[in-house]
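LAB NOTEBOOK - FOLDING QUEUE
OPERATOR: T.R.
BATCH SIZE: 2
PURPOSE: Compare the predicted structure-token outputs for two unrelated chains run back to back under identical settings.
PRIORITY: normal
REVIEWER: second-year student, initials M.K.

ITEM 1
FIELD SEQUENCE / FIELD STRUCTURE:
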Amino acid sequence: MNVYTSLQQARQQQQKKIAVLLDPDNGSPKVVDALVGQAMAARVDYFFVGGSLVMNRQIGQWIQQIKSICNIPVILFPGSLWQVVPEADALFFLSLVSGRNADLLIGQHVVAAPILKQMPIEVMSTAYMLIDGGAPTTVSYISNSTPIPADKAQIAVCTAMAAELLGMKIIYMDSGSGAKNAISESMIQAVSQHVPLPLVVGGGIRTPERAALSCKAGADVVVVGNVLEKDPSLIGEMAKAVHESN
């Protein structure tokens, strides 16, 4: 089963999934080993690797290390073309549909396309929607884009509907690394009800309770990252909250 099929089935069967977002800049090989071990014990469903600003150029070796330990699917979450490596199982082909930066809407994709066509990696066209999380984030600064206001669910719904009609396969709503606030349940629910695509939600999810609420509102995959860098032991509680929200 490829990764996208697993995401589709999860949505159809209302089986909530959890993904751990790993930043190659934050962690030594020993830290990665420990984190992956905890993720396996917690039955984490996916690893996302990448970010808006990654200075560590060893991303391929990082993924190889993860895959040597476990069989949890590794999905690239690339902030730039050089983060695209063939070692991963799949890649979010991110188009920043919430912004008006043409380079991140289609420009970088034109450059990446011939490279990806030659790679043995599953490419998933993904509508990336940046939502205001109450504080400036790396992704909003690097992408030079304005997030969708947190209280404007209708804008988020219409943006997701446009992405669906354009043929994209996944909706990824994110308030960004370091966001003060998670995306509201009302916005998640509105998008989930109007668009049948797998819905990934991340940013500002710091507690098991918030993870569960996001799932119950309609998120199919909840993404946690920064909070685990501070307290990796939360993986078990987070995963349990997500899986039990089915």
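ITEM 2
FIELD SEQUENCE / FIELD STRUCTURE:
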Amino acid sequence: MPPALHLTALPAVPMIEPGSDLAAIILEALARAEIELADGDILVVAQKIVSKSEGRLVNLETVEPSARAGELAEMAGKDPRLVELILRESRQVLRLRRGVIIVEHRLGFICASAGIDHSNVRGPDGRPEDWVLLLPEDPDGSARRLRQRLEAASGARLGVLIIDSHGRAWRMGTVGVAIGIAGLPGLVDLRGRPDLYDFSLQITQVGAADELAAAASLVMGQAAEGTPVVHVRGFPYALREASLGELLRPENEDMFR
């Protein structure tokens, strides 16, 4: 049979609150979908539910902006309290224009607003517009912990991928990208393998985790779909230990900085 990749958005995942047991919730959703985990399966999880379960909600009313945040907020036309959070979550500000602040996140990747999000976010009290959600403190660690729980419950060898939606400097539109990896390759190095004409590939390295993130993001949706977990079967590469770091281009090789 020709290779096939199957992605299934798990149904009826409830609203996630701080302290929610994501592993138990995912196992219940798998049971509802009548999916039994098998060796080689991958669970792709939206960053937002990981952040919510880990209590990464922040009320802007609790944030005191610095002078630097005030300066950048005026330049970008943003709330200085939000800009203060962006600075706290970032190593450096790389680009700024009206409406956009591009940073190097403390986790090492480049993104807008340090991945801080207002959409589909609501706190326990106060004005809804004052609540924002930060990325997980350690997405690789979050993925590892989920993988351990799911493997212990199923007896299967699994991968877990935590994804977010990022824009790109050279194209319009957001795409799903990996921000946390456990048990599957981030990068697949094909250098030295023969092509159809038996020439050795010289530079081909596949961002396999990002490719899968983009595919899963299509199934999850970006608005009110409510399907933040995707089960994957048929991933074409062998599972192995990995981390986000292998996908991050070193600064001295980055022609956009």
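REVIEWER COMMENT (ITEM 2): The CA atoms of residues 116 and 134 lie 5 Å apart.
FOLLOW-UP: none requested
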